[in-house]
Amino acid sequence: MLWLLLIVLIVAVGAFYVRMNAQAERDFDNPDAGSAMVEFGRAFPDEAIRALHSTIDRKAIFLRLHDGKAGFIQSHGTHYVCHVIHPGKVRVNSSESGRGLIVHFPDFAYLDNDFEFRTAAEAAEVSLWLLGSFNPKSEFTDETAAQAAQASD
Question: Under 8 Å CB-to-CB from 48, ≥6 apart: which residues?
């Protein structure tokens, strides 16, 4: 009876070890956007994040920052590379799939890569962030602005 209990205990410990090891490998290959944002905040505490898009493989995250700049986070295992990108400081081309961007960072050539997103709309939005052309939609339409101008007269 004691041997049976010992065998069950060894099997349970082995199963727990295998499960935790598999989860650690999954976490290593699939970084968390939340922890990446925390790391970006540590690297650049004065930069407010307005929006983000992650690549399909979740190894890179592009951020829209509060003042027209863009941010970039790339996962290297459990470490992150974080950069602030000033408008127009990168070259961007669309990929053949239409859902990706080929980005060249002149100041950080080792980051050059082809980044694939879930949709073509995400890729287009990120390209606007990187090129400094993003203009978020206003809450007010032209008609609302005209009415406000007339009311102030």
Answer: 65, 66
Exposed e or buried b per residue across 7-37, where buried means at least 16 C-beta atoms within 10 angstroms of its C-beta:
eeeeeeeeeeeeeeeeeeeeeeeebeeeebb
- The answer to whether 87 and 131 have CB atoms below 8 angstroms apart is yes
Within a domain: 143: no
Q: List the domain range (segments joined by +) for residue 96.
A: 33-131
Of residues 137 and 17, the one with the higher pLDDT is 17
What total number of domains does the chain contain?
1
**CA–CA separation, 61 vs 40, rounded Å?**
10
pTM: 0.67
